[in-house]
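Hi Y.,

Following your request, here is the sequence exactly as I used it, all 176 residues.
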Amino acid sequence: QRARHLAQRLDRPATETPATQDLAADDAGAQAEKTREALRQCIYEALRFRPMLPLLVRDCPRRTIIAKGTARARLIPAGTRVIASPLAAMFDPEAFPNPSAFSERPLESYFHFGFGPRRCFGKYIADIAMLEIVRALAALPQLARASGAAGRVRYEGPAPCALAVTFAPFDPGATP
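Below is the corresponding structure, written out as C-alpha cells. Let me know if you'd prefer a different format.
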C-alpha cells in the first residue's frame, strides 16, 4: 500500500496522504521504527521487481557444481563465463510464493546484496542510505516525475541511472 502511495505521489503531486506523510516523519519511538521497517519492506520488495543489478557476470576459475543438491544442479567447467540473473531468481515461486504479487516478505528472503562470502560489505550502509533517501524524497512538497522523457527511468546497460523529479521550493517557515 505504501508503494502505491509513493507511485501516486510521483504521478499526481497534489496527492498528499497520511501514508506518504508518515514516511517522511522524523521522530523517534516505536511508531517511527514501525514506519521505517514498513518503508524498508517496500523498498526491498520494489527492488525485487527492479533490482540494482538484474544480471551478474562471473568467470568460473575451476570446475564447480552450482545449485548442488537441487534438481537444477549443473557442472560448470573451469574457465566458463556464467551469467546469473538475480531478477529471475527473485521470481522463483519456490523462494517467493506468488512471485508476481507485490507483497510483504521476510527481509532475509531478499538477496539484493548477495549471500555468504560474496555478500556486499556495504550492505548496512546502503540499506540506511536507501531508507533515508526515500524518506527525504517523500517529505518534498509536490514531488512529481519530471515531464516528458526525463520523467522516465534512464538505464546504462541493465542498471537504472537516472529519474528526474520536480518538487516545490522548501519553505523553512512552514509547519509540517
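The helical segments are 2-11, 18-24, 30-49, 86-89, 123-139.

Thanks again,
Q.
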